[in-house]
Design goal:
By secondary structure, the protein is an alpha/beta fold. The chain is built from 16 helices and 16 strands. The strands form 3 sheets. It has a 7-stranded parallel β-sheet with strand order 5-6-4-7-8-1-9, sandwiched between helices. Strands 12-13-11-14-15-10-16 form a 7-stranded parallel β-sheet, sandwiched between helices. The structure holds adenosine monophosphate.
C-alpha cells in the first residue's frame, strides 16, 4: 500500500514525500482510513510503530477542510493529550512536519516550565492543541483554554498515563469535552483498567492492534552480558570501546544511578548527559538536542524520562540494568530500530537480575544472545531468599539512617534561624 491509496490531500502527500516515507506503516494503513471515516479507534500500538502520524494525519486532513474561526480567531478543535513533555514536543514536531503545506496551526503545552510563553502563543488561536494533563487543566482553570469546540480528541500512551498517576486529571478533562466528538485512544498495553477507561471515552470503536508490547521489533538484535554487580561500570567502558557504537541511549533504573554513570563516563572523557525527573526541563531539552545533533555520544535516561523519545536512526540501546517489568525492557529497546531501521540492544545483567531476563524471554518468546567474549563474566551467585531478606532489611536500615541524618543537617540551619529571630 502507498500513501497515495489512502485518499490523502495533496499538501499532506507532499509533506510525506519530503520526509521520504516510502509507505504507510501497519498502524497507519489501518488507522488512517478508519479515522478519515470518522470512526472512534482503540489502538494497541507502542511508540516506534508510526502511531503519531496515524492519528495526526487524519486530524490535519479534517481540520484543513473545516478550520473554525470566530471573530477572526481560531478555535481549538483537536486536542491530543499525552503523558510527558518529551512526547508532547515530539508530537508537536510531527504535526509541524505533516501540516507544513496546510493552514493548520498547532500549539504545545506542558508543565515544568513557566506558563507565560505558552499562554501568549495560545492567544493567537490554535487548531490543534497538544498537551500534558496537568498543565492543560491549569490553563483551563485559569480561563486560557476552552474545550467546548473540540471535535477530535486523542488520548496517547494511555497505559503510561495511568502508571504516572494521571487518572484523576484525565477524568477531569473528559468532563469538559463535548459529547459529540471523534476520539482516538492509543495504548501500548491493554490491561482491564485501560479497557475500562477506553469505554468511558470511545463510542463503538474500531479496534486496531499492531506490535503488541510482547513483540520486540524483528529488526533489533538483542545481546546480553552476564556480569557481577561491581563490574558493571568496567564492562560498560569495555563495551563503549567499540567505536561502531557511535551513539547510545543508555537506560538506568534510578536517577542517582543515571548521574553516577554520567560521572564515570565523563572521567573517561566520554561525552554524555543524563535526562531524568530531577533535571530541569531546559536541561533535559538541551541534552536531547545535543544528542540528536551528535554532540554527545551517550544519553543516559531513566524509563519515564525516555518514554517516547524519538531519535531518527538511533541504532544502539544499552540497558545498564535489567528492568523487573519485562514490558519496560520491550519499551526500552523499542527506542532503536524504529520504523524498520536496524537496531542493536545490549543488556548488562548482574546475578540478581538473572530472573528478570528469564521473565523477558518468556514475554517476548525469544532468547537473548549471551556474549561469551566478556572480560568481566558473572561469577557471583544470586542471593538465596534468606540472604535477600537480610539484605533488604539492611538496605532499609541504611536508607532510614541516611534520611535521619539528612533531616538533621537540614534542620540545623532552620533552628539556628529561628533562634536568631527569637534573640532579636
Ligand atoms: P512514532 O511511533 O509515531 O513515534 O514514530 C516513530 C518514527 O517513525 C518517527 O521517527 C517517524 O518520523 C517515523 N515514521 C512514521 N511513519 C513513517 C513511515 N510511514 N515511514 C517511515 N518512517 C515513519
Amino acid at each position: 500500500m502507498k500513501f497515495e491509496d489512502l485518499n490523502l490531500i495533496p499538501p499532506i502527500l507532499k509533506a510525506l514525500r519530503e520526509e521520504n516515507y516510502a509507505k504507510p506503516t501497519a498502524i497507519q494503513a489501518k488507522a488512517i482510513p478508519l479515522a478519515l471515516n470518522h470512526h472512534d479507534i482503540l489502538g494497541s500500538a507502542q511508540t516506534g510503530t508510526g502511531k503519531t502520524a496515524a492519528f495526526a494525519i487524519p486530524i490535519i486532513q479534517h481540520l484543513n477542510e473545516f478550520t473554525q474561526k470566530q471573530n477572526g480567531k481560531r478555535n481549538t478543535t483537536a486536542l491530543i493529550v499525552t503523558p510527558t513533555r518529551e512526547l508532547a514536543i515530539q508530537i508537536g514536531e510531527s504535526i509541524k512536519t505533516y501540516a507544513k503545506y496546510t493552514r493548520i496551526k498547532h500549539n504545545v503545552i506542558f508543565g515544568g516550565v513557566k506558563q507565560g510563553a505558552q499562554v501568549d502563543a495560545l492567544k493567537h488561536g490554535t487548531d490543534i492543541l497538544v498537551a500534558t494533563p496537568g498543565r492543560l487543566l491549569d490553563l483551563i482553570n485559569q480561563g486560557y483554554i476552552s474545550l467546548k469546540f473540540i471535535k477530535y480528541f486523542v488520548l496517547d500512551e494511555a497505559d503510561r498515563m495511568l502508571d504516572m498517576g494521571f487518572i484523576h486529571d484525565i477524568k477531569k478533562i473528559l468532563i469538559k469535552l463535548p459529547k459529540k466528538r471523534q476520539s482516538l485512544f492509543f495504548s501500548a498495553t491493554m490491561p482491564p483498567n485501560i479497557m475500562e477507561l477506553s469505554q468511558q471515552i470511545l463510542v463503538n470503536p474500531k479496534k486496531i492492534a499492531v506490535n503488541p508490547v510482547s513483540s520486540t521489533a524483528e529488526t533489533i538484535q538483542q545481546y546480553l552480558y552476564l556480569t557481577n554487580k561491581d563490574c558493571k561500570t568496567k564492562l560498560l567502558l569495555h563495551i563503549l570501546q567499540d567505536a561502531s557504537l557511535e551513539q547510545v541511549l543508555l537506560f538506568s533504573r534510578t536517577k542517582h544511578g543515571a548521574d553516577r554513570i554520567v560521572r564515570n563516563l565523563r572521567k573517561k572523557k566520554i561525552d554524555c548527559a543524563a535526562i531524568h525527573g530531577d533535571k530541569a526541563q531546559n536541561q533535559r531539552q538541551k541534552a536531547l538536542k545535543q544528542f540528536k545533533n551528535g554532540e554527545i555520544r551517550v544519553l543516559v535516561a531513566t524509563d519515564i524520562a525516555a518514554r517516547g523519545i524519538d531519535i531518527d536512526k538511533l541504532q544502539h540501546v544499552i540497558n545498564y540494568d535489567i528492568p523487573n517489568e519485562p514490558e519496560t525492557y520491550v519499551h526500552r529497546i523499542g527506542r532503536c530500530g524504529r520504523a524498520g531501521e536496524e537496531g542493536i540492544s545490549i543488556s548488562i545483567c548482574e546475578p540478581e537480575e538473572n530472573a528478570y531476563v528469564r521473565d523477558i524471554e518468556k514475554l517476548t518468546k525469544q532468547k537473548i544472545q549471551v556474549i561469551q567474549d566478556n572480560p568481566f563474566p558473572q561469577t557471583d551467585k544470586p542471593m538465596t531468599a534468606a540472604e535477600k531478606k537480610e539484605w533488604q532489611k539492611e538496605k532499609q536500615k541504611r536508607k532510614q539512617e541516611y534520611f535521619a541524618n539528612r533531616n538533621k543537617k537540614r534542620n540545623v540551619p532552620k533552628q539556628q534561624a529561628k533562634k536568631k529571630k527569637k534573640d532579636k
